[in-house]
Amino acid sequence: MSRILITVMMLIVLAFGIFLGTRLNRGGDSRFERQKKMLEAYGLMKEFYVDEVNGDSLASAGIQGMAEFLDPHTVYLEPEKVSYSQAEFDGNFDGIGIEFDVINDTLLVVTPLSGGPSASAGITAGDRIIAIDSVSAIGISPQEVLRKLRGTRGTTVRLKVLRPVSGKIFDFLVARGKISTSSIDAAFMLDHRVGYIRISRFIATTADEFRLSLAQLKKQGMLRLVIDLRGNPGGFLEQAVEVADEFLAKDQLIVYTKGRNTGVMERYVAKSGDGYEKGDLIVLVDKGSASASEILAGALQDNKRAVIVGELSFGKGLVQRQLPFADGSALRLTVSRYYTPSGRQIQRVYRKGVAGRERYYQDAMTNILPQKLFAHSDSLLYLKNSDVTVYKTSSLPVLVSSIQRGKIKATGKLTALRDAGGVIPDYWVTGKAYTDFYQELYQSGSLDDMARKVLDNPRSLAQGYRASLDQFIVDYSEESNFEALVIKACKMKKIIFNRVGFIQDRKHIADAVKSKIAHQLFGAEGQIMFLVRSADPVFNIAATVPVSHP
């Protein structure tokens, strides 16, 4: 478009704006005056800036700046990001499997998609990607991120990642892969009575997938169901509502939303689906369970239909609507807040602006312990052993009515709920921290390397279990030369072998390698089955906690 044509169009828009503004609002600081100021700033920058400025880029930057001023979940999406995001929820693309944002010129991993290449490599939520294939990613645009991280399945990309909590930098080699269209990672019976379903996210097909899995487990005689929402970042609100509907009686409230007006914007209630309205129900959550996951957990908790087990959830109680522009870009704008049936608004406290957004995601990586929320947490102690400590928060009679009403009730037990946000589990499970040595092995990708070396060795003990997942889970533990295998992996990754850390976390390291081997031999469902049957203390709690029915 020529400069003359652009100038003419700007003058026409300005003239029409002046006419409309004088007719609708003659006040001094009117909406028109603010719009006029923005248009003038655009024209001045385009005309007088020392270097030539691309008009589209300048406009996009302005919209991005406004979005960043609002809240951490309002974002401006360039056309490529819109296409990528839509494909992610429709499920037809190859890439490394991360949800990302570019904040303050830094590429932030919002969450790695469950079961995707990045999650398998050890990349975690909150990581900062500072280089892609040896090229700095500082100042990278969202379009460039998509161009560099998407690609042909099987090709690899090298990522240099800064982990702010530890201040360490890690190198990852990630193989691009097909990002699964399925949102159900696993569905199986643990024994003759306990069923398990893991939902990785809420996409367009989640409710249909879930109903199919639920029906199959019911046919097998399921009496207790565990739904695993750990690490589930959310997705479509309507899909979470449909899943909740399977467990609730007709007309029970699931969630409601409020926009700028004080009245109720929209209510979502159950329609007598009769999927599983009677049996025992447990829901697992952690700090990675967000948005639609929290809608499901909160609805089942408030209706006393399920027992929630795990950690405090993420705390995202804002609803976004994607509003498209003519050029294919879009504004994903927060338009309302959602509330659980009892009136909880579980959004974590945030501060506006880029700095507030940065702090918001940084805080999301921090484990909040019960001691922060409850003045006398010891009185809630339910179970303690060498692996975990469990607090029974559902014993607090005022808990549900106190959370997120803008005030903290004077119960003598609650201390900081407003800042924490999130869904507080009925059984809050905390575990001992892993050693730095274990975390370094995990973050460096050494565990995957060890699993591959075991399977590449025709004489390894694991070779004898290729035909049976059950035998593998029960009988295989580790290789006879396991310590030597770990030492060799450390040398390859230039990690200092820490004998004290190795001894302290040997079982966890062995279990982690075994889970990687299970994934390679039996797929994602096989890996999950091993973890929940043998190496998941949270699931062990969920399988045994008492459930009372309304």
Question: What features would you describe in this structure?
Answer:
By secondary structure, this protein is of the alpha+beta class. The chain has 4 domains: 3-53; 93-178, PDZ domain (Pdz3 Domain), CATH 2.30.42; 184-320 and 332-432, 2-enoyl-CoA Hydratase, Chain A, domain 1 (Alpha-Beta Complex); 436-539, no CATH class. The protein is 40% helix and 20% strand. An 8-stranded mixed beta sheet has the order 10-11-12-15-16-21-20-19, sandwiched between helices. Strands 3, 4, 5, 6, 7 and 8 form a 6-stranded antiparallel beta sheet that branches. The longest helix is centred in the last third of the chain and has 29 residues, at 506-534. It is globular, with a radius of gyration of 26 Å.
Low-confidence stretches: 397-416
Rg over C-alpha atoms, rounded to the nearest angstrom: 26 Å
Proper CATH architecture of the largest domain: Alpha-Beta Complex
Can you tell me the CATH superfamily of the largest domain?
2-enoyl-CoA Hydratase, Chain A, domain 1
Largest sheet: 8 strands, mixed
How many helix segments? 20
Mean pLDDT over all positions: 84
As a percent range, the share of strand residues is: 15-25%
Q: Which fold does the CATH topology of the largest domain refer to?
A: 2-enoyl-CoA Hydratase, Chain A, domain 1
> In percent, how helical is the residue content?
25-40%
Distance between the termini: 66 Å
Number of domains: 4
Structural classification: alpha+beta
- The CATH C-level name of the largest domain is Alpha Beta
